[in-house]
Amino acid sequence: MKLIKRAVAGTLESSDIQVIIEPREEACIEIELKSSVEKQFGRQIRRVIRETLEALGVENARVIATDRGALDCTIRARVLCAAYRASGIKGKYDWEVIDKWNA
Amino acid sequence: MKNSIGREIPESVINGLELYQGPFAKNGEVKKAAPKVKPAKPGESKLVSSIEEAIVKCGLRDGMTISFHHHFREGDYILNMVVDAIAKLGIKNLTLASSSLGSVHSPLVKHIKNGVITKITTSGLRGALAEEISRGLMNEPVIIRSHGGRARAIEAGDIKIDLAFLGASSSDEYGNASGARGKAICGSLGYARVDADYADKVVIITDTLVDFPNVPASIPQTKVDYVVRVDEIGNPSGIASGATRFTKNPKELLIAEYASRVIIESGYFKDGFSFQTGSGGSALAVSRFLRNEMIKQGITASFALGGITKPMVEMLEEGLIKNLFDVQSFDLVAADSISRNERHHEIDASFYANPHNRGCIANNLDVVILSALEIDTDFNINVMTGSDGVMRGASGGHCDTAAGAKLTVIVAPLIRGRIPTVVDSVNTVITPGETIDVLVTDHGIAVNPRRTDLIERFMNVSIPVYTIEQLKERAESIVGKPDPIEYEDQVVGIVEYRDGTIIDVVRKVK
User: Does this UniProt record's set of keywords contain Cell division (chain B) (predicted)?
Assistant: First the structure.
């Protein structure tokens, strides 16, 4: 998946995560995370964001995430949504990848 | 060295103190300390014109211990006023022995940095002060004591109060002080009464000076050296909220419903039983469910104990509860009821929960409902440090009533946001698991395996029953397994069990 613009998904409500994704020149996923549960779950939140993007085939992205204690399923959904918005894809979702998470 | 519940206590902090060995392991005879008393002659005035004058007249010097009560809660002006005055007089190196501290006391950070306060003992710590202390503000660790443990420490002379500054809602010029009458009322002065009994010097600070005699008095003239009138003792809305309301949160209501079922089926719910509930959402709602069942079954309670709230007062006035024992009134309805209801009794912290007197009323409790920030698979409870390891709570009467009551019920949601409540090992132990009987969550209950009698009783009750390990796994299956908090070696808090032994320490967070 190729990112073409900056996009956002999610809110700053408690138990949600706001994810901003923008394309980046270098081939690397850079994550800036602020989380109310950083000490307990920071490592896991970064891993879920990274794995979600990798599964979509995103290679160059900068992610700015503000977490308010979201569960993994919420984090995945917000990253997925932001990534599709950033890629400009509308309607042609890769359901195989998405269904894998729901299996 | 490890204590009997396996908490590692560094040698450096033990310093002559004993390690926790069990809830009633330390039970020998005690010798009570006694205060020095300066007699008052007829005609002498106790009224002084300012806090400064009272400090000077009492002879406060470097290295002494000063005390305060926390009945004015987040509305308190007294402590900050007095410590500011002490700082201006250039007195340093004091021990602060407050019954508790709140967010309102964050100016203490400044007075710790400038050397006015060098040691603290308290039940609770919140806000900026708590955060700074958790990050290593003080050289000496704070000693966290329960309400009963503080009363014990004062009576035993472990805390020797040189000078007690006790705010009162009203007082006469000779020191008869009340919490139940005045411009800003707090109700019971239960915690302050211990200070008044054992401090060498006692100063009453009030904004409502009334004609002699101000009776009935929470603190009588025989315990008071000086009286100071100030413009305001506190912010009334911070001292007591209008009326504690019942929660509408469905999760809390579900927990309360489960908890009330547990109590009703426990065998302790019968005519003449006694109970204590906290002021938390679920705990308070339990009393509503119990009330309905008491009416249905036609039974009454001999007494209710604790922090008293409006729902308790209503049950007293309905005749469902025969007596209220009140160490701290949580709302204005409770504060006002003390002077109105003959069977609403003001009690001091020693009568409430001191394990080393000849029998505190916590010993007479059948049922107590308590909350928890964390509970581990040994049923140990943390109500002091947040899941990030920073102090933001209070020991309160938690371990006291858990030890005293026949049935101790913990009410807590299984998870809060992404934070699990049931964990492998709590960050800080305030109450040992051997004094906890049942955990009630929104997902179901877990009974301490020690209570085989209760496990049997609940077999046929239609509440989901799990082991505590199963509840822990259930929480982890939803939120994941949290990484453990990283601490440094520096100890910022020593947690005393109510008997004065060390049950845990709080370390500086990384």
Answer: no
Task: Return the number of CB contacts < 8 Å for A and B.
Answer: 41
Domain B250-479: top CATH class: alpha beta
The SS3 assignment for A22 reads strand
Closest alpha carbon within chain B to A48: B480
Domain span(s) for CATH 3.40.1080.10 in chain B: 44-239, 250-479
- Report the C-alpha gap between B374 and B420 in whole angstroms: 8
In contact, B283 and B371? CB cutoff 8 Å: yes
Q: What is the pLDDT along chain B (510 residues), one digit of tens a residue?
A: 999 999 999 999 998 899 999 999 998 999 999 999 999 999 999 999 999 999 999 999 999 999 999 999 999 999 999 999 999 999 999 999 999 999 999 999 999 999 999 999 999 999 999 999 999 999 999 999 999 999 999 999 999 999 999 999 999 999 999 999 999 999 999 999 999 999 999 999 999 999 999 999 999 999 999 999 999 999 988 988 777 778 899 999 999 999 999 999 999 999 999 999 977 788 889 999 999 999 999 999 999 999 999 999 999 999 999 999 999 999 999 999 999 999 999 999 999 999 999 999 999 999 999 999 999 999 999 999 998 999 999 999 999 999 999 999 999 999 999 999 999 999 999 999 999 999 999 999 999 999 999 999 998 888 999 999 999 999 999 999 999 999 999 999 999 999 999 999 999 998
In angstroms, how far is the first alpha carbon of chain B from the final one? 23
Number of domains composing chain A: 1
How does DSSP assign B419-471, residue by residue? EESEESS-SS-SB-GGG--EEE-SS-EEE-TT-HHHHHHGGGSSS-EE-HHHH
Task: List the single residue in B with minimal CA-CA distance to A68.
Answer: B417
Instruction: Report the CATH superfamily, name and number, of domain B44-239.
Output: Glutaconate Coenzyme A-transferase (3.40.1080.10)
Residues of A in contact with B478 (CB under 8 A): 71
Alpha carbon of A26: minimum distance to chain B alpha carbons (Å): 31
